Amino acid sequence: MKKLIEPFAIINRQTFMIMVAAQVVITLLLWQSFSDGLIPKPGKVASAFVTLLGTKLFIENMLVSLLLTLKAMLYSILITLLFAWLSVLPFFKSVALFIVKCRYLTLTGLIFIFTLLTKDGSELKLSLLVFGIVPFFVTSFLSIIVNINPQEYELCKTLGYNNWQTLYEIIIIGKADQVFEILRQNFAISWLMITMVEGLSMSEGGIGTLLIKYNKYNDLTNVLALQLSIFIIGLCFDYLLGSLRHWLFPYSHLKTATK
Amino acid sequence: MTVYNREEVLLQATNVQLTFDQHPILRDINFCIRNITRPGLLQGQVVTLIGRSGIGKTQLFKVLSGLQAPTAGQITIHNNKSVKAGDMGVIFQNYYLFEWRTVYQSLMLAAKKNKQLWGMEKQTIERYAEQFQLTEHLHVYPQQLSGGQRQRVSILQQLLKGSDFILLDEPFSGLDVCMIDKAVELLLQVSLSDELKTLIIVSHDIEHSVAISDTVFILGTEPGKEGATIKKEIDLIERDLAWRKDIRREKRFVETIEEIKACL
Ligand SMILES: Nc1ncnc2c1ncn2[C@@H]1O[C@H](COP(=O)(O)OP(=O)(O)OP(=O)(O)O)[C@@H](O)[C@H]1O
Ligand SMILES: [Mg+2]
């Protein structure tokens, strides 16, 4: 028992699972006892969640959102890779650094400009998402490049590589597994932005529009059920991208195992 | 007395200086390594660089290999060509390998750089791997190797590259007695593989490195002057201590080791 609050203490898997289960139960009990008329009780949310999963409305909207997120992530990672790889050329370094600072631009103020630049709602949503995601991706990738062990460059030099070969070996090949880690870590950001962006163009649907509708009618039970499904899908993706990385790049598994 | 000749200059260091933030680390480094020939043998050169911890051995090592430009002076190899990174095989203190490449892939990267191996990279790697006891480990990642295996991969990688100069920083550190003997055997084998092969060993392990060397350079500081320089050069061939298998038991060898230690 004492181990649970001891720094760096190692507890076995079973103890950990029991502990997590206890924590979940306590949270649910607290929720159950403190929620009054306004905040729906856990049981109610759970049953709403189950019904929601079965509805066509939910599945359709979820698919719309997922598709949009995946598309945006795909475009974003391509743009990111391009700029991050090129960031080792002085000419593109400044551009990459500027993109990093773009994290501080809020999207809300730029919606109008993007509306002018894009043809329709779906294009608007996609470009806003990409614009929102790319700075975070680039930030992650640049920090990986900055933290490269100088010995990697030295080994390249001793092998007689020129700068282009070094770029290829260390940054493109050597950090390919990190791309998945970036996707995984920043999936949360894309997922966060999708609900916001979808509010802008309601005609195509998506979980963002669904959320707004439920909120408008004060249907808090369904809002929470929807939140729960958003949360679970997020977790699934996190897991999926993690496994994909280990499968494609077996050595990334070794690195984390020894650390 | 063994018959030998010191012939053309293979490597020349002229007035090398290295300064970090106004602090001289190395100063007035001058030495040359000549091709040693012996009738009937492909005799390479083995030079040991000795000095106390923090004196600047690793820095000199980087300057020699062209990884670090000296503040002044220069290193030339093969007829006055300035050394550049990639000219030498360099094996670092901690045997860094690309973590994302399997042993085989890492070796292949190096073999592809060696024009003499064109078309037979695969066979050469397999043959060497056998010799280095790495055959079973060719398809694992560096993280899955032991320290000694990692070292052998590192050495093999730089060997496959085929440069005449091989620099080794602390090749015996972290090895057990048995492995040290194997590493010594390996280095001797390399030094006898080609007339022009030149090994430069930086080591704390004076006995083991001196036993396989023909020349010893001692790096140290002189009173009143900041920065390390070559304080002493010992020609082991002249003392008849080079190229002898059980030299380490002989009294003259022990005396030389004492002499070197006194110099540090
Ligand atoms: N980048 C650097 N900037 C400033 N000083 C440095 C730098 N790198 C090394 N030094 C200094 O240079 C000196 C020589 O370092 P070096 O690593 O060559 O020592 P060494 O002889 O190889 O020691 P050891 O046997 O412990 O490996 C040290 O005093 C160190 O503090
Ligand atoms: Mg050192």
TrEMBL record, chain A:
SUPFAM superfamilies: MetI-like. It holds the Pfam family BPD_transp_1. One of its GO terms (cellular component) is plasma membrane. Residues 62-241 form the ABC transmembrane type-1 domain. InterPro entries: MetI-like (IPR000515), MetI-like_sf (IPR035906). One of its GO terms (biological process) is transmembrane transport. Keywords: Cell membrane, Membrane, Transmembrane, Transmembrane helix, Transport. It is found in: Cell membrane. The chain crosses the membrane at residues 74-92, 98-117, 129-148, 224-242. This is ABC transmembrane type-1 domain-containing protein. It comes from Niastella yeongjuensis.
TrEMBL record, chain B:
Coiled coil: none annotated. Pfam families: ABC_tran. Residues 11-246 form the ABC transporter domain. PROSITE patterns: ABC_TRANSPORTER_1, ABC_TRANSPORTER_2. Keywords: ATP-binding, Nucleotide-binding, Transport. InterPro entries: AAA+_ATPase, ABC_transporter-like_ATP-bd, ABC_transporter-like_CS, ABC_transporter_ATP-bind, P-loop_NTPase. The keyword Transport applies. One of its GO terms (molecular function) is ATP binding. SUPFAM superfamilies: P-loop containing nucleoside triphosphate hydrolases (SSF52540). The keyword Transport applies. This is ABC transporter domain-containing protein. It comes from Niastella yeongjuensis.
